[in-house]
Backbone:
């Protein structure tokens, strides 16, 4: 039988550090933050923040000296395709816009901040409506992971801008990354990050997001390849902001995919929805989802919900899922969370097979249907098509599901 695990225990940042001393916190909102690597030392693996992470795999990204040296070698190629209405700059780390969203919250984040020498800044002009998605493609050229590197990106949607930005990751690299996102009042930004790495890649990314006024953000995380750890810190500045955070992941044998979305409701009358779905197959496949939401004392009228669903396809795969909700203000519209991990729904399979659909095709339909609810919300056709094609390919490679099995003859 597959090992099924859904952990609903409350997450606390045991072992967090601040200014060189150990500090224990009961809330993710109380994590120490700093731009100084000395304030966030190398974790030992026993901290709540890191207890699910395979430390040996991610250890090169804790080493500031190694990442500084690797970044200087240049194991990454970055290509930006920006349509009319979007401006692209390469700026030095002293640019005053960098670091304005917030400080790093963990070791990989602070190393990423300390080690980058220049940043790619993509700005959606005020009032612009992009006719197509802007794309930032990062390609790793380090198959031996000999040069762990840092990267910094800033995505800035100015007032009333409307558009989509896709961050695409390919190849092989050991990468610690910062993505800062600013959505100004009235702007509508869809940000999609695709982890399409080769199997050997290791990628830690800290997304620090600020939605201002009545700005709207759709934040989409798609993890398909490599060992990844994506920590998304989503926050508001001003009243009336809107965040939809979606995630889709497919975890293969021996692969670790960890997603840690955190929504900080500190302003009145803001809205958020978090929904992540993942499938796992193969021995040693491990997914981790830790979803946190804070409703602060001043966040009256908050409307928020977070959800995680995991579908375990084979034996030997494991999913850890921890939703957390911290409420400091009872004057809200609504708040809640849900989490579940399970196998194929036998009733769905029976229903399809009873109508003449072969078992393998029925399994394929169940898996695609499981993901479809999230995929349909992305609303970026090229991303949706790539994602569904990748899911089908993964299923075919293992032989668990054959998408090419012929349909039964017509009656």
Residues:
């Amino acid at each position: 039988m597959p090992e099924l695990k859904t952990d609903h225990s409350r997450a606390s940042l045991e072992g967090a550090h601040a200014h060189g001393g150990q500090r224990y916190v009961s809330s993710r909102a109380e994590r120490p933050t700093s731009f100084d690597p000395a304030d966030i030392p190398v974790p030992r693996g026993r901290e709540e923040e890191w207890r699910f992470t395979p430390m040996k795999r991610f250890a090169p990204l804790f080493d500031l000296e190694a990442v500084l040296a690797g970044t200087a070698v240049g194991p990454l190629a970055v290509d930006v395709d920006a349509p009319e209405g979007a401006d692209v700059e390469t700026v030095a780390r002293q640019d005053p816009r960098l670091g304005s969203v917030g400080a790093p919250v963990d070791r990989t984040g602070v190393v990423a901040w300390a080690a980058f020498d220049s940043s790619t800044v993509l700005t959606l002009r005020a009032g612009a409506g992009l006719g197509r998605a802007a794309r930032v493609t990062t390609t790793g050229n380090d198959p031996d992971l000999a040069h762990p590197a840092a990267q910094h990106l800033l995505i800035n949607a100015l007032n009333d801008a409307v558009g989509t930005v896709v961050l695409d990751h390919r190849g092989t690299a050991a990468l610690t990354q910062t993505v800062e996102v600013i959505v100004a009042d009235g702007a509508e930004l869809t940000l999609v990050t695709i982890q399409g790495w080769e199997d050997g890649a290791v990628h830690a990314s800290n997304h620090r997001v600020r939605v201002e006024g009545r700005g709207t953000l759709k934040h989409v995380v798609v993890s398909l390849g490599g060992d990844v750890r994506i920590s998304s810190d989503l926050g508001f500045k001003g009243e009336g902001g809107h965040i939809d955070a979606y995630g889709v992941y497919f975890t293969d044998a021996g692969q670790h995919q960890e997603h840690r979305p955190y929504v900080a409701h500190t302003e009145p009358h803001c809205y958020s929805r978090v929904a992540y779905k993942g499938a796992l197959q193969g021995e040693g496949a491990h997914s981790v989802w830790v979803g946190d939401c804070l409703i602060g004392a001043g966040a009256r009228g908050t409307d928020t919900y977070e959800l995680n669903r995991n579908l375990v396809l084979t034996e030997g795969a494991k999913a850890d899922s921890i939703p957390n909700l911290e409420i400091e203000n009872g004057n809200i519209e609504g708040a809640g969370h849900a989490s579940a991990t399970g196998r194929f729904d036998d009733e769905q399979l029976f229903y399809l097979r009873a109508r003449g659909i072969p078992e393998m095709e029925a399994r394929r339909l169940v898996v695609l249907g499981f993901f479809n609810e999230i995929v349909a919300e992305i609303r970026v056709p090229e991303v949706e098509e790539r994602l569904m094609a990748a899911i089908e390919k993964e299923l075919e490679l293992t032989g668990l599901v054959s998408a090419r099995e012929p349909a039964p003859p017509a009656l």
Q: What stands out?
A: The two ends are 37 Å apart (CA to CA). The chain has six helices and 20 strands. The longest strand covers residues 162-172. Residues 1-24, 402-411 have pLDDT under 50 and may be disordered.
